[in-house]
Give the backbone structure.
Amino acid sequence: MDLKALREQRAKLIADARAISDKATSESRGLSPEEVESQRKMLADARLVVEQLRNGEELEAEERSLSATLPESVRPESRGKKGEEAKSG
C-alpha cells in the first residue's frame, strides 16, 4: 500500500472513532461497551498504520540517501533504464 493510501486509511479510522464519541455526546449519553471496544480497535488500527507509515517513510529516505551516494552507473533506478535502453537499442 502506498503512503498516501495509508494516510487516508489512518484519517478514516480516526474520523470513525471520533464519530462514535460524537454520536454518544449528541445523544447525551456515555459510550456503550460495544462502542468503547469499536473505538479502541479503530485507534489501535490507526497506531498500526502509523508504524507502517514510519517504515515506508524511512525506507524512502534510505533509498534517497543511497541514490545520492552511489555513482549513477550502479544506482538501482539507473540499472533498469540501462537494461531497457539495451533492449530497445
Q: What stands out?
A: Residues 3 and 53 are 6 Å apart (CA to CA).
